[in-house]
Design brief:
The complex is a heterodimer of chains A (269) and B (290).
Chain A lengths: L1 H5 L1 H21 L7 H12 L11 H34 L3 H14 L6 H7 L4 H25 L3 H9 L4 H37 L6 H10 L3 H29 L4 H12 L1
Chain B lengths: L2 E14 L2 E14 L3 E5 L6 H8 L7 E6 L2 E2 L7 E4 L3 H4 L6 H6 L8 H14 L15 H14 L4 E5 L7 H18 L3 E5 L2 H7 L2 E5 L6 E6 L10 H4 L1 H16 L11 H23 L3
Parallel strand pairs in B: 3-8, 3-9, 6-7, 7-8
Antiparallel strand pairs in B: 1-2, 1-4, 4-5, 9-10
The chains are: A mainly alpha (269), B alpha/beta (290).
């Protein structure tokens, strides 16, 4: 309740802006800038006019939206698993980063969209190419943050673990990963936003389905309300994913100093 | 009494840029089962190196360490360490109960881990705090958790590295008495490193005085105080005062340089408090006989 109330001013600003947008677009009457109500109506027809059996969702939702979301989350998850495991390995090795550091710096400096043609040549058109683009683009923040986090285990904890002869598994999963988890979450959060961007970009090039493809298709058909609906959908998706990840993070990192006040306020009130 | 720890001719050299640095040299001593031995030495004399060699965390350059007859190579299975920095040595993402259980994963079943942890927390007077996180406890309580974790491990030897150096004077007294009670009740063999002379005499059955770096054993003093100790009466007894004076003289004369006064504000505070309380006691006992 408190959280909702504290974000109320933000929602008011949003509503006011939408109203202003509605008025401005109606007054201007531009083909390129349809009013929000028209966009909303288009969105309803496009996505929410399906049969009751499928919760009123249309086929477009299943073919484009869910396909896109699955690719985005899939790519992000693959990048997460690879990034965290590689990062922890590199971070706990004294010399590995000396060897791999420059290569990583170079690879992550390459703008991921420029690799789309490469992945197009390497993989078949569609999902494999798109997954490759998303994984390549989102792995770096996760990897580097995991390296940083794995290195942040202090000497006393290392000695405590050694003195109690913790097994390798307990050491990695019971000490290194929890100690690194605040940094890992920071990396995951950056990568989640990146994965949304890369999902769209990979679909703009040589794709036959997905939100990005639909966006480009609408624009070429001069169907501007549909194009705007796609843009807003992407914004909403980004917001929802980020909120979801924040909720998970709050739970997982509840032990952290930064979360202490929130916990204390929650139990004390 | 059987010998629990045997250290013979232990030495360790670090290879630094400007040549070698000898941290400890020709150290020999033993600790009998059930004993509480305090090691006191000037700051920077190599106490940490000694402790790390004993626990197998580092391999000493020369000499031999044996725990109940077995030579120490790597960390022994039945040894526990309590570090000075409790805030770093406890795992902040685990509750108190889980912190105590965690090192037992290799040793005991889930049910046994649980009961051992509850028992050890009870020994240190924290039976109600199992569900809390370390940051919800005071510094002294956190160090008690670290002690409980070590006790639940049921070590043959408990090593303590300046365990009470980071808490305030009042808490230090409480923790010292807690340690004495726990080792009496559970017959634990303890080797405790400290830089506080008073603490070493108050806690120990024996006090090993180390010299300045490279550390060697200057003296092995038997503490002839009754087993039951009290922060006020023990500290004001003639035997205690004599022992702490002797230890201090050995400590300051043990090096090659001339004796220097050590800045030890916490020790000073502790002594001041003890003296003040002793005075108060004396006054009240004066008034009583009427």
């Amino acid at each position: 309740m408190k959280r909702l109330r504290s974000s109320a001013p933000g929602w008011i600003v949003l509503v006011v802006l939408v109203l202003l947008w509605e008025t401005a677009t109606r007054l201007a009457g531009s083909l390129y800038f349809p009013p929000p109500t028209q966009i909303a109506e288009t969105a309803r027809q496009m996505w929410f006019s399906g049969p009751a059996a499928s919760l009123f969702l249309t086929d477009v939702v299943f073919e484009d939206v869910l396909a896109s979301v699955a690719r985005m989350l899939g790519g992000w998850a693959i990048a997460g698993v690879l990034g965290v495991s590689l990062g922890v390995l590199l971070g706990r090795s004294a010399t590995a980063m000396d060897y791999c550091g420059p290569i990583i710096s170079f690879l992550r400096a390459i703008p991921p969209p420029t690799l789309v043609p490469v992945f197009l040549a390497l993989f078949t058109l569609g999902t494999p190419m798109q997954l490759a683009t998303i994984v390549f683009g989102t792995i770096w923040p996760i990897l580097l943050n995991s390296v940083d986090g794995a290195r942040s285990v202090d000497a006393t904890k290392t000695e405590t673990a050694r003195a109690f002869r913790l097994s390798k598994v307990d050491w990695i999963f019971g000490v290194v990963l929890p100690a690194a988890s605040p940094k890992i979450f920071a990396g995951l959060r950056i990568s989640l936003s990146l994965s949304l961007v890369l999902m769209v970009i990979s679909e703009l090039v040589g794709s036959t389905e997905g939100i990005g493809y639909r966006l480009l298709y609408s624009q070429r058909q001069y169907d501007f309300p549909a194009m705007w609906a796609g843009i807003i959908l992407l914004g909403v998706l980004g917001f929802l994913f980020n909120t979801g990840l924040s909720a998970v993070e709050r739970r997982v990192l509840a032990w952290q100093p930064a979360h202490r006040q929130a916990v204390a306020a929650g139990t004390g009130a | 009494m059987s010998t629990m720890l045997e250290v013979s001719d232990l030495g360790h050299r670090y290879h630094a840029k400007g040549g070698e640095h000898t941290a400890i040299d020709h150290l020999s001593f033993t600790v009998a089962a059930g004993e509480l031995v305090c090691i006191v030495g000037p700051s920077g004399c190599g106490k940490s190196t000694l402790l790390r060699s004993l626990s197998g965390l580092i391999t000493p350059s020369t000499g031999r360490v044996a725990l109940h007859g077995d030579e120490v190579r790597g960390v022994p299975d039945d040894l526990a360490v309590v570090f000075q920095d409790y805030s770093r040595s406890l795992f902040p993402w685990l509750t108190v109960q889980r912190n105590v259980e965690f090192p037992l994963k290799r040793k005991a079943s889930r049910a046994e881990r649980r009961s051992r942890a509850e028992q050890a927390l009870d020994w240190v007077g924290l039976s109600g705090a199992g569900a809390k996180y370390p940051w919800q406890l005071s510094g002294g309580m956190q160090q008690r958790v670290a002690i409980a974790r070590a006790l639940a491990y049921r070590p043959a030897l408990l090593l303590m590295d300046e365990p009470f150096a980071s808490v305030d004077a009042q808490t230090r007294f409480e923790l010292e008495d807690l340690l004495l009670r726990v080792r009496r009740e559970h017959d634990t063999t303890i080797l405790l490193v400290t830089h506080d002379i008073d603490e070493s005499v108050y806690l120990g059955d024996r006090v090993l005085v180390l010299s300045k770096s490279p550390a060697t054993v200057v003296a092995d003093l038997k503490v002839d105080l009754p087993a039951e100790r009290d922060q006020i009466t023990t500290r004001e007894s003639d035997a205690f005062v004599a022992l702490r004076a002797e230890t201090a003289r050995l400590l300051h004369g043990g090096g090659t340089a001339r004796p220097r006064v050590q800045a030890d504000p916490e020790g000073a505070a502790a002594r001041f408090l003890a003296a003040e309380r002793a005075e108060r006691e004396a006054q009240s006992s004066h008034r009583q006989p009427t």
